Inverse folding.
């Protein structure tokens, strides 16, 4: 902004404030622009609008809590999808079968279904 490193101590706090999520220091930003932009007085209204717009962009926002639905049945239990899951074992059956036979080979039919699901 100044063309050299003489104003780093003035500019760096403004940047740190924005980066930390605390918003833009409008007064300090306008002071810096007034000192270093020659056409500031001619464009004061436009610069003011731009700085205030940046202030809105950089202002901290509150995060909305995530939307969580409750009592959602699995697709296999919904009538519209039930026919698509005929012959496909549930996750519970898959885990129980794999965990019960960790050292033994799986039934070939079960292995084929498992491979198709994966």
């Amino acid at each position: 902004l100044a063309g050299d490193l003489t104003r780093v101590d003035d500019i760096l706090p403004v940047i740190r404030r924005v980066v930390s999520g605390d918003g833009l220091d409008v007064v300090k930003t306008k002071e810096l622009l007034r000192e270093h932009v020659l056409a500031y007085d001619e464009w004061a209204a436009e610069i003011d609008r731009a700085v205030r717009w940046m202030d809105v962009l950089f202002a901290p926002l509150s995060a909305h809590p995530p939307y969580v639905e409750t009592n959602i049945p699995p697709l296999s239990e919904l009538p519209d999808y039930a026919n698509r899951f005929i012959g496909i074992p549930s996750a519970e059956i898959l885990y129980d079968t794999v965990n019960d036979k960790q050292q033994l080979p799986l039934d070939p039919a079960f292995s084929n279904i498992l491979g198709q699901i994966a």
